[in-house]
Design brief:
Number of strands: 12
Organism: Streptomyces purpureus
Domain ABC transporter: 4-236
InterPro entries: AAA+_ATPase, ABC_transporter-like_ATP-bd, ABC_transporter-like_CS, P-loop_NTPase
Protein name: Sugar ABC transporter substrate-binding protein
Strand order of the largest sheet: 6-7-8-3-9-10
Structural class: alpha/beta
Bound molecules: adenosine-5'-triphosphate
GO molecular function, one term: ATP hydrolysis activity
Length: 270
């Protein structure tokens, strides 16, 4: 596992600055949640962390080495990326998709080794897909595809995993299982999430984005405050702790615009 840090990372397209001076750190072996409203820059930041986009300014480091210093081949062996809604060729099986996780370790025409096969078996097992491994990709549900993409990432035995909204197609059991799995791995994870309660429960560290900038970063209870949530998402919330587990709990009360309208009506009932 490794630490990922960015310094003053910026990225623009057509003169519009989509990421602006991002300084963040994803700690060794921990789960870092990227939060922020639609369009705040979470996916763009993940792409820069993965080296899929080149920043205008700033650097991404894995441990103490910059992305450029690591080089593509080394990065492909240590970093797994789980993007949103990835498509695969219709006629491949689930197992073949998961086997792609072994590609960085194999020569082009090499057969899978025993270790490759065992790693793929374990990844299928951990994502609850063993019984679907011979199915065609196109017959899977959205949630099964999402789990298969995670299985491909696990088959890579990565040191770091970047995940873009990995729970958006999953039913509640599989959401919890996926996040339980991420927290149990000895891997540094950076995960974009929309669900603030899941972020509070599973992330060690949060980075909150707004319009391409980091507006808060730290432990969940320092980031998920009513004031910050209201200012970034425009939603009034109650934040307390769930009595049985002590986990931070966010209850949504109303959008800020609706609250203002209700308050105005109370002030001026006529
Ligand atoms: N290649 C591009 N060209 C133009 N605009 C882009 C490009 N990529 C991203 N954007 C814009 O940058 C902003 C940030 O997008 P991004 O996908 O990173 O946000 P996000 O926080 O992941 O959003 P969501 O929660 O909706 O997935 C959006 O306004 C998006 O339209």
């Amino acid at each position: 596992m490794g630490r990922i840090t960015t310094t003053h990372l910026s990225w623009s397209v057509k003169g519009q600055r989509l990421l602006d001076g991002i300084d963040m750190e994803a700690h060794d072996g921990k789960v870092t949640g990227l939060l922020g409203p639609n369009g705040s820059g979470k996916s763009t930041l993940l792409r820069l962390l993965a080296g899929l986009r080149r920043p205008d300014t700033g650097t991404v480091r894995y441990d103490d080495t910059t992305l450029q210093g690591l080089g593509r081949r080394v990065l492909a062996r240590r970093l797994a990326v789980v993007e949103q809604d990835v498509t695969a060729h219709h006629h491949v099986t689930v197992r073949q998709v998961v086997e792609l996780g072994r590609t960085p370790f194999r020569g082009r025409f090499d057969a899978l080794t025993e270790h490759d096969r065992r790693t793929v078996d374990a990844a299928l097992e951990r994502t609850d897909l063993t019984d679907r491994q011979h199915r065609s990709w196109h017959t899977l549900s959205g949630g099964e595809k999402q789990r298969a993409q995670l299985a491909r990432a696990l088959a890579q035995e990565p040191r770091e995993i970047l995940l873009d909204e990995p729970t958006n197609h999953l039913d509640i059991r599989h959401q919890l299982e996926l996040l339980d799995l991420l927290t149990s791995l000895d891997v540094t994870c950076v995960v974009a999430l929309h669900d603030l309660n899941l972020a509070a429960r599973y992330c060690d560290h949060l980075v909150l984005l707004q319009r391409g900038q980091v507006v808060a970063a730290g432990a969940p209870d320092s980031v998920l405050t009513p004031d910050l949530i209201k200012s970034v998402y425009g939603v009034e919330v109650l934040v307390d702790r769930e009595p049985a587990t002590g986990t931070l709990r966010i209850t949504y009360l109303a959008t800020a615009t609706r609250t203002t309208a209700v308050q105005a009506m109370q002030l001026d009932p006529g």
